Amino acid sequence: xxxxxxxxxxxxxxxxxxxxxxxxxxxxxxxxxxxxxxxxxxxxxxxxxxxxxxxxxxxxxxxxxxxxxxxxxxxxxxxxxxxxxxxxxxxxxxxxxxxxxxxxxxxxxxxxxxxxxxxxxxxxxxxxxxxxxxxxxxxxxxxxxxxxxxxxxxxxxxxxxxxxxxxxxxxxxxxxxxxxxxxxxxxxxxxxxxxxxxxxxxxxxxxxxxxxxxxxxxxxxxxxxxxxxxxxxxxxxxxxxxxxxxxxxxxxxxxxxxxxxxxxxxxxxxxxxxxxxxxxxxxxxxxxxxxxxxxxxxxxxxxxxxxxxxxx
Length: 312
Prior knowledge:
The protein has 312 residues and is α/β, with parallel strands linked by helices. The protein has two domains: 9-123, 2,3-Dihydroxybiphenyl 1,2-Dioxygenase, domain 1 (Roll), CATH 3.10.180.10; 142-297, 2,3-Dihydroxybiphenyl 1,2-Dioxygenase, domain 1. Helices cover 19% and strands 36% of the residues. The chain has helices spanning 20-31, 76-88, 153-164, 212-224, 278-281, 292-297, and strands at 9-17, 34-39, 42-46, 56-60, 65-72, 93-99, 107-112, 118-123, 142-150, 167-174, 177-184, 192-196, 201-208, 229-235, 242-247, 253-257, 271-274. The strands form two sheets. A nine-stranded mixed β-sheet has the order 14-15-16-13-9-12-11-10-17. Strands 2-3-4-1-5-8-7-6 form an eight-stranded mixed β-sheet, with helices on one face. A hairpin with a 7-residue loop joins strand 6 and strand 7 (107-112). The radius of gyration is 18 Å and the shape is globular. Keywords: Dioxygenase, Oxidoreductase. GO terms for molecular function: dioxygenase activity. Residues 9-124, 142-259 form the VOC domain. This is Catechol-2,3-dioxygenase. InterPro entries: Glyas_Bleomycin-R_OHBP_Dase, Glyas_Fos-R_dOase_dom, VOC_core.
């Protein structure tokens, strides 16, 4: 039996790194997020168009790591139901459901996935007064999706489907080798996913822009400021969303995107797209050619936080 429908949406991604000051400046002043809370060596950053109190948490640490990926649930009862199912399947908890002491509070559980990432699922978290992003305003509306690298993608994708109720939207392959899996927890084509890589690590976080014009203005701003653009601008086949990928100050890949596909759960059937057809990577044909050297930049460093709970 799968845990169907107990996760409703992606909340935030929490990352740690030694160069905290540089990262904080990048996400606030360059990427376009708004700091809603801070403490010594910790910054909570919101997207202006999102009701989430924060979509990125930065934390200063001697080692670079992914602290956790957080998802929402509809109610505390659903958090408890999910926890019972996880315990019954032998999943190791970081902590049992409890009142959270992070901004917004709420009620949540944390646990390790099969590769040691920390996952949080919470409900009753306070929301913030967000706003409509204006025309030509090139800042993120919301956190769109997060993808992670994994050396065991078939096992890990199955783990998230069976234990957390994610659904497979589409798969990418090169020839006969599958390399990328897009997972959904609502009607957005994907909120989470996995990329075949040499080790478990953060792959990229993607931020939805108001529209194509705002997406291009944000892309151009980063380019003019001298930030390395890995790939883009272009438009993917899977998800039908635009893309421009950059590196932040810690070497994590971040993406501006827009117009991510909304799917009909009753009629959707997963596709397998072969990237040997360049139109499956970029429908517009405007992006620089993706090659193994560019792809390797998003393999990232080995995640030092596996099976280690973050300090907060």
